[in-house]
Amino acid sequence: MRSTTGGAQAADTRSRLLQAAELLFIERGYEALSLRQVTARAGANLAAVNYHFGSKDAMLKELLSHRLDRLNEERLRLLDACEAGDSVPDCVAILGVLFVPALQLGRDPSGGPAFLRLLGRVYSDASPFIRDHLQQHYRPIFGRFFEAFARALPQLPRSELGLRLHFALKSLSGVLAADDMGELVAELSMGQDISDAELLARLVALVSPALTAPLGTPQQIAVIDRLIQLSHRDGSEARARSPEYPGRTSASPLGT
Fold it and tell me: Looking at the 3D structure of the chain, how many domains does it have?
């Protein structure tokens, strides 16, 4: 009986440590998270962390695997289903493959409310540990989706596609990291009673132009170049008029 009770207590301690680590990681990021913060929030001690995980890095790796493996399994299953048809999935479909499982897991009552914020933190955290873990653990999945986007957007050079994916998903991760599930849904639905399909279609509509917009045309480049020239000219004129940058007709503080 004592053995069973002890096992249950150990499992409870392990679970509390992971939950505390998740919330602190969402709030502060990897670099600012300390084991003392985790143990204080979990009501445990450092010996418990060493017993169950061995280190901060090992604990975070288990947390990320526990939360992200299921998500990516669902994404790959959906992508397989989309690619099983006769036509190549377009950009909207592939973005949907990324978003649908995330929304579903975000509504899981057993831990979903913080899931989207965790996802946003994972993709926006700049620490080498998180970046290296994602590269090592999920490189094949990243590659699979990159190739799917490349087939959907053959007009984009691969380097351009990589840049666009980076900025599009980075900006989205910032939104996810800042809001909980309820706030995000409320903002996207704009107070309306809409279906999940309508909700995700709005999210896709916000992200997809970053991937599908044509490369800069000569006319667009000319407009931006003109603005740059105006900025330089106006900046020079403003400095010439400023007391801090006296012109040739003004006396210099050095008397020259």
Answer: 2
